[in-house]
Amino acid sequence: MSKKKITEDTTTTAPAKNAPALVKKIGRTTYIVRVHFSKTSKETMSDKIKRMLKNEIQQM
């Protein structure tokens, strides 16, 4: 995979061309958001959603 340098400390990995994408058109601008998941993550999607909801409730 190729990496694109953004700043000295931050890099991003280019998404695979077959990665799922969300497309949203706002006015005359079309936004394409590609979705990818970490292969090294120890947390399931369900665990992540629960953690995010818990954190949001604690901030209320």
UniProtKB/TrEMBL annotation:
It holds the Pfam family TnpW. The lineage of its organism: Bacteria, Bacillati, Bacillota, Clostridia, Eubacteriales. This is Transposon-encoded protein TnpW. InterPro entries: TnpW (IPR026990).
